[in-house]
Amino acid sequence: MITIKKATKNDYEILSLLGRVTFNESHGDYINDKSDLLAYLETTFSIEKTKENLQSENNMYFIIYVDDFPVGYAKIILNSQNDVISVKEACCLDKIYVLNDFIAMKLGYQLLNVVLEEIKKLQFKYLWLYVYEKNDRAINFYLKNNFISKGTHTFYIHKTGYPNNILLKKI
After folding, report:
1. How far apart are CA 7 and CA 75, in angstroms?
2. Angle CA(169)–CA(171)–CA(151) in degrees, nearest 5?
3. Cα(16)–Cα(49) distance, integer angstroms
4. What's the domain range around 37?
5. Total Cβ atoms within 10 A of residue 77
6. Which residues pair with 167 in a beta bridge?
7. pTM for the structure as a whole
8. With helix as H, strand as E and coil as C, how does 122-146 read?
9. CB contact burial 31-69 (16+ within 10 A = b; e otherwise)
10. Domain CATH for 124
11. CB under 8 A, 24+ apart: contacts of 131-136
């Protein structure tokens, strides 16, 4: 059985572990310096950082479960803009990841739909995100879900920049 739950402040351990594992699975092969990758994982997905993120009123997380086993998550940042996306009624889909062993189940679509439903309820009009330019599977996923390209952004892991596409979807 597949269920999706809005995360609570008590879900920090699950989200920290899921974040670390899924980011490594989806991006680890692209990061040239593995010590940079390890430092990024330890910082970005630490227990303390995850607790802090969960406590922010602008962050919202959803966890997807298969038979009560957590297999992925999504994070949105409410009221979020960047240099390219300047509309006020926008949210950032900061993270949406599913463990590799469960990707074939198309759980990303279910997570995205829950995110879209939630931001509609909150009366946001746009959802935007960054996606690494070499991550063809993710780019195709977003294009199939009516996101459009709006520009580029360089995402840094330590001192190395990785080019990302900025995609936008009107809700």
Report:
1. 10
2. 20
3. 8
4. 2-170
5. 18
6. 129, 149
7. 0.94
8. CCCCEEEEEEECCCHHHHHHHHHCC
9. beeeeebeebbeebbeeeebbebbeeeebbbbbbbbeee
10. 3.40.630.30
11. 131/164, 131/165, 131/167, 132/27, 132/30, 132/162, 132/163, 132/164, 132/165, 133/162, 133/163, 133/164, 133/165, 134/30, 135/26, 135/27, 135/30
Position of tokens 């390209």? 149
- Going by the DSSP 8-state scheme, the letter that residue 159 receives in this structure is T
Count of structural domains, the chain: 1
pLDDT tens figures, 44-97: 999 999 999 999 999 999 999 999 999 999 999 999 988 888 888 999 999 999
Percent of the chain at pLDDT exceeding 90: 94
